[in-house]
Amino acid sequence: xxxxxxxxxxxxxxxxxxxxxxxxxxxxxxxxxxxxxxxxxxxxxxxxxxxxxxxxxxxxxxxxxxxxxxxxxxxxxxxxxxxxxxxxxxxxxxxxxxxxxxxxxxxxxxxxxxxxxxxxxxxxxxxxxxxxxxxxxxxxxxxxxxxxxxxxxxxxxxxxxxxxxxxxxxxxxxxxxxxxxxxxxxxxxxxxxxxxxxxxxxxxxxxxxxxxxxxxxxxxxxxxxxxxxxxxxxxxxxxxxxxxxxxxxxxxxxxxxxxxxxxxxxxxxxxxxxxxxxxxxxxxxxxxxxxxxxxxxxxxxxxxxxxxxxxxxxxxxxxxxxxxxxxxxxxxxxxxxxxxxxxxxxxxxxxxxxxxxxxxxxxxxxxxxxxxxxxxxxxxxxxxxxxxx
Length: 389
Prior knowledge:
It is a single chain. By secondary structure, the chain is α/β, with parallel strands linked by helices. The chain folds into 4 domains: 107 residues, Conserved hypothetical protein from pyrococcus furiosus pfu- 392566-001, ParB domain (Alpha-Beta Complex), CATH 3.90.1530; 90 residues, no CATH class; 126 residues, no CATH class; 50 residues. Helices cover 53% and strands 8% of the residues. A 5-stranded mixed beta sheet has the order 1-5-3-4-2. The protein has a two-stranded antiparallel sheet with strand order 6-7. β6 and β7 form a beta hairpin. α11 crosses α12. The radius of gyration is 27 Å and the shape is elongated. It starts with a strand and ends with a helix.
């Protein structure tokens, strides 16, 4: 590793850089500018020769910033002419890995940025073509099947020196997921591997939907306008800071359900997901919204049986409107307190208020007292049978 001062004009943000957002110049960014003006640069930028990057010979700059793009922008705004850098010799994978790790240790990346970096690393490492394993067989299917059933050293561990992607050889995609889980989340257990897969799935979504995995203040004006067009509240976000939230999982599942069960000529998947999010958001807690999306998702999974594209579109619209109206009516019926004799039942969780409204609807009763009396009578019958009363 070489350490040197490099002219600001001789630097460009690396193609493998995990932080993709533009310099916002907001209050947090301005504090960094003020800090550089007052104290100077406390942490060097991490750079590599531009010839090793995807830019090739298409740029005049000599070095690409692997980690430190915020410090770079702040230094320019603070009037720096040169900036201290650590120069490393790294291929694209190693640069992407170092960028994600160092940026996560500083100003936290959004879930979208983490997702994009992991997807980029996965694409660099995933196996291509036919591979052979003396223990598992020589087909890709055999290898994947065996790697899920046993601890096959040939499958689960990369060959060669782990200092760069050029010397890493993975035989299955499962092994790549495990490697990335260990590198970035500490181990290759099921929970961490699942997180890697979920984050990569986020990076594969259309960018308009990906915006939901960014903090509202980090969205671009175009992203804000798109979400606003579909009546999605600005503070509605699937972002959770490194973990995929349950709401985020439901959005991923909703996109997959619409994509797999509708005709693309009839329903635009991106618009359908965004419209659903806007229609079902009644300023409720995330758990209630997760359940609403899950219920609606099960309803639209049946649309794929309809052959006519026009009928599919009409059925989707009808079901979404009916589901929205049902939620609206339930919310209007909800009461904070349910009185039964001298006992007051207070539902602090919106979930139970909604369960109560649905129970009343299912039982066909009109008063809160009746629904609780019916439920308690069923409970007494159950206890009588159980205890031989």
